[in-house]
């Protein structure tokens, strides 16, 4: 049963702490993405990765970091430098990288809701 | 980023068809029209996409105006499980997806 998993579903963090959100996919997709969603808003792209060991900043990368050591995994670290980290975080993947020129859909995980106390 | 305009909210009765409009007057020739939907506290789900011709799949139909400046997502028989936020997105292959605020669909039993 292929798909994308994110853990944990809910996460609480104290101010000043770094926290890492997990994203795993078994779809054999090349590209993976992290989005942030605030209440009543659309999704904003934080980082994306088109292949292993490569990643690019999205529109709101400040205060976040990522790694892509394995094709299946794309963890996101929310650092203490992120001024307003409370949000719903969504991971996605697509079979082809953005630069392939192929118009492929994105598959999303269930999300992690991060709350900073 | 390519712009789309959608109504903030719509209502439909259960078992009736729903037509969700989207305006994209600045669309260019290579922009694909994508629709995703998001149920509460879940990730978005792909619904359908098209370029010029109308498209049908098991979930919905996409009707694209001849000048491509607007499109309509058609749910043929709304169910309670179709209550979600529907996003209309323009995308050039190779570029990011830009999600706006979408249309919140309420289905009335």
Helical content band of chain A = under 10%
Shape of chain A: globular
Largest interface: A-B, 29 and 22 residues
What is the 3D shape of chain B? globular
Radius of gyration from the alpha-carbon trace of chain A, in angstroms: 13 Å
**Class by alpha and beta content of chain B:** mainly beta
Let me know the number of strands of chain B: 9
Biggest β-sheet of chain A: count, sense, barrel? Answer: 7 strands, mixed
The major beta sheet of chain B can be summarized as: 5 strands, mixed
Oligomer: heterodimer
Strand fraction band of chain A? 35-45%
Rg on CA atoms of chain B, Å: 13 Å
Number of helices, counting only DSSP H or I runs of 4 residues or more of chain B? 0
Any low-confidence stretches of chain B, pLDDT <50, length ≥5?
Answer: none
Strand content of chain B: over 45%
Distance between the first and last residues' Cα of chain B? 37 Å
SSE pattern of chain B: EEEEEEEEE
Number of strands of chain A: 11
Helix count from the secondary structure assignment of chain A = 0
What report would you give on this structure?
The complex is a heterodimer of chains A (117) and B (109). The termini of chain A are far apart. By secondary structure, chain A is mainly β. In chain A, the strands form two sheets. In chain A, strands 2, 4, 5, 6, 9, 10 and 11 form a seven-stranded mixed sheet that branches. Chain A has a four-stranded antiparallel sheet with strand order 1-3-8-7, with no helix packed on it. Helices cover 0% and strands 44% of the residues of chain A. Chain A has strands at 4-7, 10-13, 19-25, 31-37, 43-49, 56-57, 64-66, 76-78, 87-94, 107-108, 112-116. Chain A is globular. With 109 residues, chain B is mainly β. Chain B has strands at 9-13, 18-23, 31-38, 45-50, 55-56, 61-64, 70-75, 84-92, 103-108. In chain B, a hairpin with a 4-residue loop joins strand 5 (55-56) and strand 6. The model of chain B has no long low-confidence stretch (mean pLDDT 91). Classes of the chains: A mainly beta (117), B mainly beta (109). The interface between A and B is medium-sized, with 29 and 22 residues.
């Amino acid at each position: 049963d292929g798909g994308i998993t994110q853990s944990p579903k809910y996460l609480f963090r104290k101010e000043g702490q770094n926290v890492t959100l997990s994203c795993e996919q078994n779809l054999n997709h090349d590209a993976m993405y992290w989005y942030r969603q605030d209440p009543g808003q659309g999704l904003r792209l934080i980082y994306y990765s088109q292949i292993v060991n490569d990643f690019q900043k999205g529109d709101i990368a400040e205060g976040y970091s990522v790694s892509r050591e394995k094709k299946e995994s794309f963890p996101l670290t929310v650092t203490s430098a992120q001024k307003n980290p409370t949000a719903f975080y969504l991971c996605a993947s697509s079979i082809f990288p953005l630069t392939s020129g192929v118009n492929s859909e994105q598959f999303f995980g269930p999300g992690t809701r991060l709350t900073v106390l | 980023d390519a712009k789309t305009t959608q109504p903030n909210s719509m209502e439909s009765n259960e078992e009736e068809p729903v037509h969700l409009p989207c305006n994209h007057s600045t669309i260019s020739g290579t922009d694909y029209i994508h629709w995703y939907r998001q149920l509460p506290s879940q990730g978005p789900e792909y619904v359908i996409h098209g370029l010029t011709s109308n498209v049908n799949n098991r979930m919905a139909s996409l009707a694209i105006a001849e000048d491509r400046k607007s499109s309509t997502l058609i749910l043929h028989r709304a169910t309670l499980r179709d209550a979600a936020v529907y996003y209309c997105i323009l995308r050039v292959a190779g570029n990011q997806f830009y999600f706006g605020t979408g249309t919140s669909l309420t289905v009335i039993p």
